[in-house]
Automatic annotation (TrEMBL):
Catalyzes the synthesis of alpha-ribazole-5'-phosphate from nicotinate mononucleotide (NAMN) and 5,6-dimethylbenzimidazole (DMB). Its EC number is 2.4.2.21. It is an enzyme of class 2 (transferase). This is Nicotinate-nucleotide--dimethylbenzimidazole phosphoribosyltransferase. CDD domains: DMB-PRT_CobT. It comes from the Bacteria.
């Protein structure tokens, strides 16, 4: 893989059109399934076929810490990241429970936890032990930023080589909404106040402190929106870079990529800046509670499938959206056609 010379697959407008024709011929009102039909059209466009391949799916959960937690921007201490990450790796977290009901595999990859995992199921691709405190220093070197993308790309290619037909991304780690807010504010040239939210369950006083920290970070780091690698290296995170790599691998291989929440949205902004048009390969699973999420998705031209006020992370929202994919597959497989009924709707 060359970060500078990707080979994105073509989005098939003809497959999307054929899918809509098929849906219009089913025994239901034209466009009666609303956004579910748009989902099927988008999947067909990404895959380049109308016989959608959706059975085998994996959620890749990248875990990493952020040095900015030293500035008291999170509700809990840094040590909790290891506990939460190991819980996902061991199969007992929210995303695992949702994945079981949606027939989805979950893999957990350490790309930057401060501590060491105690789970034998954790995949170790640690780049560094967390990012630097971005208030006082760039998050990572430019070299490590590129490495994080490569790690994610390699993990995704391995999943694809094992036959996965859809990929989903999630994350665990403290401080990630602070970094993501900085990314979104930078990439969309927006004031911090209109993109940042509480993230974890912090007090109003702590929230005001968090906003000021992000403003100071952007003043101190001066990330260059014209250079997304610069933004990633100055204010990003290892899990954010890894997600960009997954996005690239998916887009190269005609694999639908399901975004989770705000952290994925921030990564998608960087990916789109690096590889224009790549966002057409993404499915926005849900609208995160973070204020900047809607602005990021609007910019990317993505309409979230769900709006349930989710704020779990881990990839749980992305996995939950798979239920809608399975519903559409059942409709495409089991619903009869207007021809079967010898009936047509009048225009």
């Amino acid at each position: 893989m060359s970060v500078s010379e990707p080979k994105l697959s073509t989005i098939s407008q003809s497959a999307s059109f054929q899918m809509q024709e098929k849906l219009d011929n089913l025994s239901k009102p034209i466009k009666g399934l609303g956004q579910l039909e748009a989902l099927a059209d988008q999947l067909a466009a990404i895959e380049g076929r109308i016989d959608l391949q959706t059975v085998k799916r994996t959620c890749l959960v990248f875990v990493a810490d952020h040095g900015v937690v030293q500035e008291a921007v999170s509700a809990t201490s840094q040590e909790i990241s290891n506990v939460l990450a190991d819980n996902v790796a061991n199969g007992y977290a929210c995303v695992n429970a949702v994945a079981k009901s949606n027939h989805c595999n979950v893999e957990v990859i350490d790309v930057g936890l401060f501590g060491d995992s105690h789970s034998p199921k954790m995949i170790d691709r640690k780049i560094q032990r967390g990012t630097h405190n971005i208030l006082v220093k760039d998050a990572m070197s430019r070299q490590d930023a590129v490495k994080s993308i490569q790690v994610g790309y390699d993990i995704a290619q391995d999943a694809i080589s094992k036959g996965n037909q859809m990929l989903l991304i999630g994350e665990v780690g403290l401080g990630n909404t602070t970094a993501s807010s900085a990314i979104v504010a930078t990439m969309l040239s927006l004031p911090v106040d209109v993109v940042v939210d509480k993230g974890s369950d912090i007090s109003t006083k702590q929230f005001e402190h968090k906003k000021q920290i992000i403003k100071d970070v952007l003043t101190n780091r001066q990330p260059n929106k014209a250079d997304p690698i610069d933004v990633l290296s100055k204010v990003g995170g290892f899990e954010i870079g890894a997600k960009i790599g997954v996005m690239l691998a998916a887009a190269e291989n005609r694999i639908p990529l399901f975004l989770d929440g705000f952290i994925s949205d921030a990564a998608a902004l960087l990916a789109e800046a690096m590889y224009p048009g790549i966002a057409k390969h993404f499915i926005a699973s849900h609208l995160s509670k973070e204020k900047g999420a809607a602005k990021a998705l609007d910019y990317l031209g993505l309409k979230p499938l769900l709006n349930l006020g989710l704020a779990v992370g881990e990839g749980s929202g992305a996995v939950l959206a798979l239920s809608l994919v399975d519903v559409m597959q059942s409709i495409l497989t089991n619903e009869n056609t207007l021809g079967d009924l010898k009936f047509e709707y009048e225009n």
